[in-house]
Structures are given as C-alpha cells and as structure tokens.
Amino acid sequence: MRTLCASTLIGEFFVIGFAGLVAMKDDSLTMGTVWTVCGIAMLLSVLLCGVITRPGGIQLGWGLQIALIASGFVVPIMFFLGAVFAGLWWASVHFGRKIDEAKARWAAQSEAQPQ
C-alpha cells in the first residue's frame, strides 16, 4: 500500500506546484500567499509519504484530497484534477491493502510449507 499511496502523493506534489504557477496569474492573489499555501500543500504531500502506514496517515491523505478539490475555487481545473487524484488515492488505498493481504498470505503459506 505504501508504494501506491506514495506514488499518488508524489504526483500530487507536481500538480500542486503547477497549480501554483497558474494561480500566480490571478491578480487578486499575492505571490507570497500562493507559494505559502502551495508550499505547505507540497510539503504535506511529501511528508505523508513517510507516515502512510502510521495511524491517521490515510485520513491525512484524504484531507489533502479534499483540499486539492477545494483548490478548484482558485484554479478551476483543480476541481477535475483533484477528483482524479482522489480516485487515484482511493484506488491506491483499496488495492494497496489487497496487495498487502496477499503478501501476508503468501508469506504465511511459505513459512508453513516444509522445505
């Protein structure tokens, strides 16, 4: 699960950075505000890669997905990209858990077989 989720989060890192470049064109936002918000979100996406397997890591990831979708109010394409990454996050968590369960079953079977 960790590999799939981390891949999604790294992809989000780049999307957030590019969204910041687009948001800079909005005259109502200062460059400092844009990069403070984007920097925090980018840092969070990288830090989450290390805490995915810890308690609350998946929930923090969902919080980032919600924030990514909500950023569509500033950069409208982020409604779509945020939804795409939320779907990828769900798939990463869902299928990652299935892969982890299959690995655990395989390890238990190989330990139970005499050599």
Query: What would the principal axes of the Cα set say about the shape?
Result: elongated
- The share of residues in extended strands comes to under 5%
The overall pLDDT average reads 93
Largest sheet: none
Q: Oligomer, anyone?
A: single chain
Radius of gyration: 18 Å
Low-confidence stretches: none
The rounded distance between the terminal residues' Cα atoms is 30 Å
Give the number of helices: 4
> What string, H for helix and E for strand, traces the elements in order?
HHHH
Feature tags:
115 residues, mainly alpha, 4 helices, 81% helix, 0% strand
Structural commentary:
The protein has 115 residues and is an all-alpha fold. Helix content is 81%, strand content 0%. Helix 1 runs antiparallel to helix 2, helix 2 runs antiparallel to helix 3 and helix 3 (57-70) packs antiparallel against helix 4 (77-112). The two termini are 30 Å apart. The mean pLDDT is 93.
Task: Describe the secondary-structure layout.
Layout: H1 2-23, H2 31-51, H3 57-70, H4 77-112
Summarize the structure.
81% of the residues lie in helices and 0% in strands.
